[in-house]
Amino acid sequence: MMNTSFHRIQVRVAHADPLVAVGLATVLARHADIELVEHEQAEPRVVITDYEGALSLVHERRSPRAPRPPFLQAPARPEGAKVLLLTANDREHDVRSALEAGVEGYADLGCHIEELVNGVRLVARGSRYLSQRAAQRVAASMTRSALTEREREVLGEVALGKSNKAVGQTLRISAGTVKTHMKAILEKLGAATRTEAAGIARELGLIPSPPVRAGRLV
């Protein structure tokens, strides 16, 4: 009998959520062209991981000798492995940031099983892969101009309820400059007010959402 293991896609599941990891392993094991491998085994072609794990792996790819940021604690990236990210984070900024960092595949937890398996195959062949929802997020972002880093900083401060003067003091710029940034922000996000702009930006992941404590926003 011919040994076909050479042609199978070796995949390592390294997702931080144990339930997701077990589910992934169960699903992938049902496909004849996919072979699951453990950390100690032969180097996999594809690693499926969570958002922070994916950023850790691509960070190591770019700077293998550089110290990792403290929040990046995933195992070392296997030589030559492609990274497929599976996450509940499907906001526009999350998707774009991961792709710009160098992640080869991005799938949301709500995607169909066969969609994910197809993603594994595409990534293994060297293609980029986006699940349908992630692709829609990226497509939507192409219809508007991206906020600059300074504009995100300004909007982040405005979202805290600060006046132009207070924002300017925090960022060490004039109130007039803050007003100019806000005008550009409103145009780019298609918002009519500062509050609406902050809400849109939070939904897209461009600025942090307010913290939640004891079941309520603070």
Describe the structure.
This protein is an alpha/beta fold and 218 residues long. It is built from nine helices and eight strands. A six-stranded parallel beta sheet has the order 2-1-3-4-5-6, sandwiched between helices. It has a two-stranded antiparallel sheet with strand order 7-8. Helix 6 (149-158) crosses helix 8 and helix 8 (175-189) crosses helix 9 (194-204). The longest helix is centred in the last third of the chain and has 15 residues, at 175-189. 33% of the residues are buried.
Q: Given the C-alpha coordinates, what overall shape results?
A: elongated
- Which strand order does the major sheet show? 2-1-3-4-5-6
Question: Helix/strand/pairing class, anyone?
Answer: alpha/beta
Mean pLDDT: 83
Fraction of residues in helix: 40-55%
Uncertain stretches of 5 or more adjacent residues: 1-5, 66-75, 212-218
Strand % is 5-15%
Total of helices: 9
Q: What is the rounded distance between the termini?
A: 65 Å
Order of secondary-structure elements:
EHEEHEHEHEHHHHHEE
- What's the β-strand tally? 8
Query: Main sheet?
Result: 6 strands, parallel
Query: What is the alpha-carbon Rg in Å?
Result: 21 Å
Quick synopsis:
With 218 residues, the chain is of the alpha/beta class.
Which helices and strands, and how do they pair?
Layout: E1 9-14, H1 18-28, E2 34-36, E3 46-49, H2 51-62, E4 82-87, H3 92-101, E5 105-108, H4 113-124, E6 129-130, H5 132-141, H6 149-158, H7 164-171, H8 175-189, H9 194-204, E7 212-213, E8 216-217
Parallel strand pairs: 1-2, 1-3, 3-4, 4-5, 5-6
Antiparallel strand pairs: 7-8
Helix pairs in contact: 6-7, 6-8, 7-8, 8-9
